Amino acid sequence: MSKPEGKGREGGRGGNSRMDCGSQTGSIPDSPRSSHLAIDIGGSLIKLVYCSRGSGESAADENCCSSTESAKISNGINFHSLRGGRLHFQTFETSKVADCIEFIRSKKTDFGGGWHLEGSKEKNVIKATGGGAYKFADLFKEQLDIVLDKQDEMDCLVAGANFLLKAVHHEAFTYRDGVKDFVQINDKDLFPYLLVNIGSGVSMIKVDGIGKFERVSGTSVGGGTFLGLGKLLTQCKSFDELLELSHKGNNRVVDMLVGDIYGGNDYNKIGLASTNIASSFGKAISEDKELHEYQPEDISRSLLRMISNNIGQISYLNALRYGLKRIFFGGFFICGHAYTMDTISVAVHYWSKGEAEALFLRHEGFLGALAFAWVLWLVALASTPNVGVDDEFLAGIRGFVAGSSWVGDQNCKVYS
Ligand SMILES: Nc1ncnc2c1ncn2[C@@H]1O[C@H](COP(=O)(O)OP(=O)(O)OP(=O)(O)O)[C@@H](O)[C@H]1O
Ligand SMILES: CC(C)(CO)[C@@H](O)C(=O)NCCC(=O)O
Question: Where on the tree of life does the source sit, at the highest rank (predicted)?
Fold first, then answer.
C-alpha cells in the first residue's frame, strides 16, 4: 500500500479535543429560507442537508454550519458564490424525529408552498435515504404531507463520498498523535478504495468508480454499540457525555495487557509489547477488585478503544483482501474525535505493518445526505472550472440532476 500524496498540514488539536463537526444536534434554530432539502434517517441520527438563499457572507448567524466550517466549504467548492445559495448541515437524534419534523415544517411554512420533484407533477417530495426513509415514511406523510422519495443507503453513501473526494478541496486527512494532515487526492487516481461508514453499525464498501461498488463487509459492532453499551455500563445519558468521560479515563485499568499475563514482559517472539492489549475488558474477570470499583471513565475509554481498534483491524483486512490502497472512514461515530481517529489510525498502521494509513473525511457523517448535493456542485463547477472532474463523473451528476428535487424560488437551480 502506498502513502497518500499531496499532503498539507494543519495544526492538529491535541489530546482528546473534539473537532468541529460543522453541525448542531437537536436544537431547532431559526431557519433561513430553504430551497433544497435532502434527508438521511439512520438508526441513531437524522442528517439534513439543505441549500438556502443566504443574504450575507457570514454563516455565523446561520444554523448548522459554524462560520469556520462554512468558510472551509466555500474554500473548497465556492458554495457561497452559488448565486447566493448556501449549503447547511443539521442533525437530530432519530428518537427525536418529532423535532426534525417541526424543523422541516418551519421551512415549508417559510415557502408557503412545499417541495416538488423536478420533472414530475408530484408535489411535496423530498429525497430520503437510510432505514428511516422506510420506517418513517407514513409519519412524514401524515405530519407534513411529504412523500419520502426513497434512495438506497449504500448508493447514497458512495455517491456522497465520491462527491466529496472529487469536488471538495482538503476533504480527506490523516490523523496521528494530534496532527491532522490534509491529503489532496489525485482526481484521476481515486479508485478503487475502501469506504468504511461507522454509523450505528458499520458498512465496508469497495468503491471501483462512480456508481460502481460492492458492500464487501460490515460489523454490528459500531457507533450504536459504543453508545448503547456505554449507557448500560456507565449510566451516561448521551454520546457527548460518554465521550467526555472517556477523556478522563485510563483503559489499562480495565483492559488486560500482555504484560499482565507475561509478568511485565514483552512477548517478543510474536511481536507483542508488554503494553499491548491482550484482552479488552479482561481485567474485570479478576476477583481482586469488586465490579463497582471500576470507574465509568475507564470503562468508557476502554470501550471506545475496543470498538475503534476492532473497526480499524477489520477494515484493513478487507482492504488487504481486495488489494485496496486507500481506506476512507466516515460516519458520525468518528465525529472528529481525536482518540477515536488516533485509535483507528494506529490499528490500520499496526496491522498493515506501516503499509496503510487511515484517511478521514471532513464531512464524515453527511455522506448519505450529501449524495443529493451533487447538483450544487454542478453549480460550483460553473464558477470554478478548475475543479478536477472527468466526463464520467459529470455524466453521473447530470443524471442525478435530472431526478433532483427542488423547492422555493429555484435560487440554486442552474439548469432549465
Ligand atoms: N449527538 C449524538 N447522538 C447520538 N449518537 C451520536 C451523536 N454524535 C455522534 N454519535 C455517534 O454516531 C453514531 C451514528 O452515526 P451515523 O449517524 O453515521 O449513523 P446512522 O445513520 O444513525 O446509523 P446506520 O447507518 O447504522 O443506520 C451513533 O451510534 C453514535 O455512536
Ligand atoms: C444495517 C445498516 C446498513 C443500516 O445503516 C448498518 O447499520 C450496518 O451496516 N450494520 C452492520 C450490519 C452487518 O453487516 O453486520
Answer: Eukaryota
- The alpha carbon of 246 and the centre of ligand 1 are apart by a number of angstroms equal to 17
Cα 371 to averaged position of ligand 2 atoms, centre (Å): 19
> Who lines ligand 2 at CB under 6 A?
42-43, 131, 153, 199-203, 218-220
Same domain, 212 and 270: no
49 and 144 both lie in a single domain: yes
Does 159 fall in a domain? no
Judge if the upstream peptide bond of residue 32 is cis by omega within 30 degrees of 0.
no
Residue 343 shares a structural domain with residue 201: yes
Tell me, yes or no, whether 84 and 137 share the same domain: yes
Mean pLDDT in consecutive groups of 10 residues from the start of the chain, 416 residues: 40 31 39 60 91 43 30 31 56 96 78 43 77 97 91 93 83 94 89 98 96 97 98 96 97 98 98 97 95 97 98 98 96 96 97 95 88 57 44 44 30 22
Ligand 1 mean position, distance from CA 332 (Å): 5
C-alpha of residue 353 to centroid of ligand 2, in Å: 28
Name the one residue in this structure whose C-alpha cell is 476533504.
Answer: 171
Helices (H), ranges, 268-323: 296-322
**Whether residue 131 has its Cβ less than 6 Å from ligand 1:** yes
Residue 240 lies in a domain: yes
Distance CA(315)–CA(203), nearest Å, equals 10
Taking the C-alpha atoms of residue 363 and residue 369, their distance in angstroms, rounded to an integer, is 10
**For the chain, how many structural domains are there in total?**
3
Closest Cα to atom 31 of ligand 1 = 223
Q: What is the pTM of this model?
A: 0.81
- Tell me, yes or no, whether 415 lies in a domain: no
The CATH code of the domain that includes 333 is 3.30.420.40
Ligand nearest to the CA of 219: 2
Write the residue with the smallest CA distance to atom 2 of ligand 2: 201
Report CA(193)–ligand 1 centroid distance (Å).
23
Distance in angstroms (rounded) separating the CA atoms of residues 303 and 222: 11
Starting from the edge strand earliest in sequence, which strands make up the sheet with 212-219, in order? 7-10, 179-183, 172-176, 358-361, 327-330, 193-198, 202-209, 212-219
Atom 11, ligand 1: residue with shortest CA distance: 333
Q: Which domain holds residue 311?
A: 1-19+172-251+296-361
